[in-house]
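tool_call: predict_structure(chain=1)
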Amino acid sequence: MKLIYGISDKPKFGQLLIFALQQLLAILAATIAVPAVIGNGMSQSAALFGAGVGTIVYLLFTKFKSPVFLGSSFAFLGSMAAAFAGGVSASAGYLGLIIGALFAGLVYVLIAIIVKLVGVKWIDRLMPAVVIGPTVAIIGLSLSGNAIGDAVGAAKNADGAFIMDAHAGACLICALVTLLVVVISSVYGKKMAKLIPFIIGICAGYVVATIFTLIGNATNNEALMIVDFSKFENMQWVPDFTFLTAFSGEYDFAGGDLGSYIGTIAVAYIPVAFVVFAEHIADHKNLSSIIGHDLLKNPGLSRTLLGDGVGSMAGAFFGGCPNTTYGESVGCVAITGNASVITIFTTAVMAIVASFFAPFVTLLATIPSCVMGGVCITLYGFIAVSGLKMVQQVDLGDNRNLFPVSVILIAGVGGMALNFGAITLTGIACALILGIITNLVLGVKDSKKKETK
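tool_result:
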């Protein structure tokens, strides 16, 4: 695609701050959702701080050539829960988060060393376009339920149907306003509007949600109360960093043995790290196609892995959450055409600074999920379309190409996730593994479409 700002371009300072804020808004909901889901007193501000630090670490390792933000990884939710389950005291649980992140990071470091020694040609063999393209598409499609659920303010029941509540109507209106404003700004906007469609859309959705909330408060109609302004009553001014809790107090382990506890953490984190490695490659392949530059060759897969791994360690040290490259960030780059790495760096600095400014973090936290749902429909959609574009030049008339793509799409959309105790193979990981196996069994590289004159 045509980029407005390339990797090394530097927007003007005022524009840079606005672009960084847009990236921050794109990744915020998911980044602070992980500590909220885990609970146990985990700090959302600290997670935001850790994401900023982890991203800066990643940029340093990749020599400022890869424009993507690192945020809290959902893949490690089960692993983090295991850390708290094995540590009876708070200090032990938080220590487990740090130990687990170290294990996960070391997996990345080990793979990076192997890649450095043997190169990346095996990646092209295992994951050609017929494998990586539909996998990237699945990353976007697998998140579609989250986007729609947020948009209508509902969750799914056991049958997969959304359970609508009283807020659904107002939420859907806010989501649609946000979505349409983002689309119109991106397509018909002039100059700056094309570069900040998410900020414009979120502001429009937030205004509509606020109007609904004010009317609801005035008429005592809870169905219209979408924005939770009560969050301002208990603002957290200073982040509760993970290492502060981990290295204070007494340690009390469920089994009474530190060795067995560390073993439990290792089993919970290490296998997941190998799964996230596959998603790491998919994200960077996708980003490479967007910016027109192969990141697996320059700065190199070994550097992106080291950046991701060490960045995860740093992020967990401060915020408890291992980090990973964010599809929302990649989608933001794709839609706006802004691949400036300095924008990502500024976003990381902004995240660190914002984590200490409670009113700002709280204001961002009050953005209704329905508004973010409207934004995410476009973000996740662009990820899916980016993956399909990779398959566009592949000859799907050849069954040897058709079958790997078919297997990945069906396994991924069908949600073929597998659980092995505390270890979960996500639908994306299962789809990718099946696609790789199918491609290897067929034993051929994907053939390109024949150009017609």
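agent: The first strand starts at residue 70 and ends at 72. Proceeding to next step.
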